[in-house]
Amino acid sequence: MRAAVLHEIGQDKLEVLDDVEAVGFGPGKVRIRIRATGLCHSDVSAMSGVLPQPAPFVPGHEGAGEIVDVGDGVTGLAPGQRVLLCWLPACGSCPACKRGQTHLCLAGFLNAGTPNFKRPGGDVFGFAGTGTFAEEVVVDAGCAVPIPDDVPFDIAALIGCGVTTGLGAAINTAKVEAGSSVAVIGCGGVGISAIQGARLQGAAQIVAVDPVESRREAALRFGATEAVAPDALADAKQRITGGEGFDYVFEVVGRSATARTAYETTRRGGTLCVVGAGALDDFLQLNMFELFFDEKRILPSMYGGGDVLRSYERAIALWRAGRIDLASLITHRVPLAGINEALEQMRTGVALRTCIEI
């Protein structure tokens, strides 16, 4: 079958090969025919080495498709069923799951160290234990989440990561209050979803911050009340909050420099929500006096900070009701053979989300 493979960490292009085989099928597993997958910034971060991932590997973790086969012991799933892929399934029995923090379950991360594919030259891993830039993938049954027939594969794919992450950051983690002021730094697919979440929560002012003009324009269509370039954020803070700072600031870039800017843009007693996934060696510096004196809440948000299955259901319900716009998040579409075009679209910032149709 065909799959897009990164041979070595640090390479900036993928090679689409037709000699890749999905492996590992057996008890408790399902084989999925991928129909659509989104390109998430985390895929690019894994390729560059910002996020740890063994190579060679097939990127992609934001996907949807149809079940081809189910292994022994799998219940509730059947061939032909439409599913989205959950790259962080909950085991249900670890301490995090028992506390109700299923998004912090480590079971899914353990899958990242087991090869999902093979080629004549050896094993190939799947990013985050999945690897959706392929025609088929074998994953644990818990990674396959059934979707209703009225949810298109491309919409379901987005819900599998970016939409859930952004909406959840605003709704679950930060718990944005009605009438509040919000700034979102980084307005790709996840940042736009955070904007939609803040709008749903009733925020009065939502300032989108991004260096790319097309993304700023898009943010206004999705609910931002104002959109500015990074060098205009200080002025927006002064005009909108009288210099005090925003009630909530979302950092959706994953860099210490923007996190520091976000901290300084948050009012005393306000909330900084860190959504971007950054590097192990990139440190955010805060002095102990400001940490104490400003009493700003610093809340990391991983995968939307809540039960992901419930978050999927909520996103589908909001999409059906017309309360969130998911179709317009997909600004570009390419076939698997055009995957490097999709990477360029992300790196230049012209795309909110590129859908790879497989």
Label this structure with key terms.
12 helices; six-stranded parallel β-sheet; alpha/beta; seven-stranded mixed β-sheet; 358 residues
What can you tell me about this protein's structure?
The protein is an alpha/beta fold. The protein has twelve helices and 19 strands. Helix 5 (162-173) runs parallel beside helix 6 (189-201). It is globular, with a radius of gyration of 20 Å.
Give the topology.
Blueprint: E1 3-5, E2 15-17, E3 21-22, E4 29-38, H1 41-48, E5 57-58, E6 62-70, E7 82-85, H2 95-98, H3 107-110, E8 117-119, E9 122-126, E10 136-140, E11 144-146, H4 153-159, H5 162-173, E12 181-185, H6 189-201, E13 205-209, H7 213-221, E14 226-228, H8 233-241, E15 246-251, H9 256-265, E16 266-274, H10 288-294, E17 297-300, H11 308-320, E18 330-335, H12 339-348, E19 353-357
Parallel strand pairs: 5-9, 12-13, 12-15, 13-14, 15-16, 16-17, 18-19
Antiparallel strand pairs: 1-2, 3-8, 4-6, 4-10, 4-19, 6-7, 7-11, 8-9
